[in-house]
Each structure stands twice: as structure tokens, then as C-alpha cells.
UniProtKB/TrEMBL annotation:
Residues forming coiled coils: none
A molecular function (GO) term: oxidoreductase activity
A Gene Ontology cellular-component term: membrane
Family statement drawn from the similarity comment of this UniProt entry: Belongs to the short-chain dehydrogenases/reductases (SDR) family.
UniProt keyword list: NADP, Oxidoreductase
Gene: Vigan.01G282600
Protein known as: (+)-neomenthol dehydrogenase
Domain of life: Eukaryota
């Protein structure tokens, strides 16, 4: 399916539906795209919970925003998405502080341990825990805290990657499972388990998994598939929940050792626009990707 160009006009932001009461959570908010996104939300007048797995780094990020004059409505909460206990503690802290008022959840935190030209799968378990199981657990823990009302739509934006596109999977059987219209959560877990088994048993190279940044690509493949299942489950009309994925493109952050076609601010500006689309223009179950040099955004009709 050819991607379509999407909302090239920044004037969409003039359709402001949010207020200071609108609450966003951004994971991995202490640096990179996450930090730039927290800043963008704060500049646009959204209240943001900046989360980070390290207290000092998280608090320092909030302090930087205060010094820049945009920190008044930014709060910090500790969250290591790869740790189920941290996820449930975070959900309880959020509930105690804000109640069931979550409007926007951006699952941004992510890891890759490879240099750009490497392809080790040494950290496959940890990458899967952070990039796939983490967002999944967090969404499940926060579902009861989503605001969802007849006036607002809660938005889940999963920061993913084109590397996790189905067309990167060379094994036709795996692709067939993930392409199924009736795909179930358990089947995605099954694919992830199969990959981890192939890694443990040293077979992963010949089993047709994505060939570049393999462990990272499989984690994002699973995240995309889960987003699709979720979007379908809450298929939007009346459910008050929208779930989309966003690939920021090759962005200059620590993950790419500063290489990339654009900076974190450009990627974050696009992510913010997406997360803040007015309700009548907000899709669900879409995969958005930022085009080269961050000049346009593509949307495929299906994840
Ligand atoms: N940069 C790109 O070219 C690119 C392309 C496509 C997709 N992406 C995606 O964009 C997202 C942001 O990446 P980035 O480029 O901004 O990378 P980054 O600068 O390395 O930032 C990653 C963030 O995730 C946090 N993080 C890692 N593991 C975590 C965990 N277990 N719990 C909570 N936070 C954790 C990091 O915290 P610490 O500081 O504590 O490590 C950091 O705040 C990721 O999901 C990445 O996969 C990036």
C-alpha cells in the first residue's frame, strides 16, 4: 500500500482542543526525541509528565525546562518501562497525583545496543523488554486511567520504526501470521518467543528475520502488530481511544550517535502535531513516518 501524505499544514494546530487540564505522559523523556517532545507539549500548553528510568536524569531534564521557562506544567515521575514493578508503581503514582485523566500516552522510551553498521543480537531479551513488553505493560496498566469521555479521545502514540515494517521480514510464515486480519496478542507473543528461541539456539540468521538491527527491528515489528490489535479492539468510534505508531526517521540522537537527517526537535514537532490532532481528524491504527529531512509525513492505511 502506497503511503499517503498526511497533515502537511501546521495550521491544524490552530484547531486547539486541549487546555492546561490536558495531561500527557512521555516515556524516556530525559533526552533525545522524548525530551524534545515534552518541551514541545509544554510550549503548546499541555501538562506533561516527563518520565525517566533514572531519577537524577529525569529531574535534571525538568530543571532544564524550568530554566528555559517552559517547566511550570511539567511533572516528573520515575518509570523504567522494562521493569513490571516500576510500571505498576508508576501507574499508582499517576493515579494518586492526577486521577483518571490521562489524555495522551507517548511510548517513546527505546533502546538499541548496536552501532549503526553492527548487527549483534546479544541484547535481544532486554531490547524486547524495553521496546515491546514495556509499552504493552504500560498501556495495560494505564487503561483504567485514560480519560476517555464523549468530549475527548485518549491518544496512544507508539514511537516505532520503519525497521519494524512487515516487509523487512523475509520469512513468509512469520509474515503470514502477523498479516492476519484476526491477529491476536498471543500470536505476537508467540512470534517474539520464536525469535528469542532462534537467538538462544543460534539460528536467527537463517530464519528470515529482518536483516538490519535484527533484535531492534523485531521489537518494533511486535510493537506495530500490538498497536494494530489494540486499535482494532478499541476501534475508535465511541470507544474514545486512538492508537497509532510514529517513526521519527533517521534522527540525530544518542541512539544514532548524533547521526541523522534531522534533529530531535523536528521529529518531536511532528509527533506533537500527530498526538494533538483535532478529534475529527484523528485516525487510529495508522503507521506514520517522517519523510527524509523531516519535510513531510507519510501514513500507511494499515499498521
Ligand atoms: N533516533 C532515530 O533515528 C530513531 C529512528 C526510529 C525510531 N526511533 C525511536 O525513537 C525513540 C526515542 O529514541 P531516541 O532516538 O530519542 O534515543 P535516545 O536519545 O537514546 O533516547 C532514548 C530514551 O529512552 C530511555 N530509555 C531507555 N530504556 C528505558 C527504560 N527501560 N525505561 C525508561 N526509559 C528508557 C532513555 O533513558 P536513559 O537516558 O536512561 O538511557 C532515553 O531517555 C525510541 O523508541 C527509538 O526506538 C529513533
Amino acid at each position: 500500500m502506497e503511503p499517503e501524505h498526511y497533515f502537511p499544514s501546521p495550521s491544524l494546530l490552530l484547531t486547539r482542543w486541549w487546555t492546561r487540564e490536558t495531561v500527557a505522559v512521555v516515556t524516556g523523556g530525559n533526552k533525545g526525541i522524548g525530551f524534545a517532545l515534552v518541551k514541545r507539549f509544554a510550549e503548546l500548553g499541555v501538562s506533561v509528565v516527563l518520565t525517566a528510568r533514572n531519577k537524577q536524569r529525569g529531574e535534571a531534564a525538568v530543571e532544564t525546562l524550568r530554566e528555559e521557562g517552559v517547566g511550570d506544567y511539567v511533572h516528573f515521575l520515575l518509570l523504567d518501562v522494562s521493569d513490571p514493578l516500576s510500571v505498576s508503581t508508576f501507574a499508582s503514582s499517576f493515579k494518586a497525583k492526577f486521577g483518571p485523566t490521562l489524555d495522551i500516552l507517548v511510548n517513546n522510551a527505546g533502546v538499541s545496543y548496536n552501532e549503526l553498521e553492527e548487527n549483534s543480537v546479544e541484547h535481544a531479551e532486554s531490547v524486547m523488554k524495553t521496546n515491546f513488553h514495556g509499552p504493552k505493560l504500560l498501556i495495560q496498566a494505564l487503561l483504567p486511567l485514560f480519560r476517555r469521555s464523549s468530549f475527548s479521545i485518549t491518544r496512544v502514540l507508539n514511537v516505532s520504526s520503519r525497521l519494524g515494517s512487515l516487509n523487512k521480514v523475509r520469512n513468509a510464515d512469520i509474515r503470514a501470521v502477523l498479516e492476519r486480519e484476526e491477529l491476536m496478542e498471543e500470536e505476537i507473543e508467540g512470534v517474539v518467543d520464536m525469535f528469542l528461541r532462534d537467538v538462544r539456539e543460534g539460528r536467527w540468521r537463517k530464519e528470515g528475520w529482518p536483516s538490519y538491527w535484527t533484535e531492534y527491528a523485531v521489537s518494533k515489528l511486535a510493537l506495530n502488530a500490538y498497536s494494530r490489535v489494540l486499535a482494532k479492539r478499541y476501534s475508535y468510534e465511541g470507544s474514545g481511544l486512538s492508537v497509532n505508531c510514529f517513526c521519527p526517521g533517521f534522527t540525530q540522537t544518542s541512539m544514532t550517535k548524533g547521526k541523522g537527517t534531522h534533529n530531535a526537535e523536528a521529529a518531536a514537532a511532528c509527533a506533537a502535531t500527530l498526538a494533538l490532532l483535532p478529534p475529527h481528524l484523528l485516525p487510529t491504527g495508522k503507521f506514520f513516518s517522517l519523510g527524509r529531512a523531516a519535510t513531510f509525513l507519510n501514513a500507511t492505511s494499515k499498521l
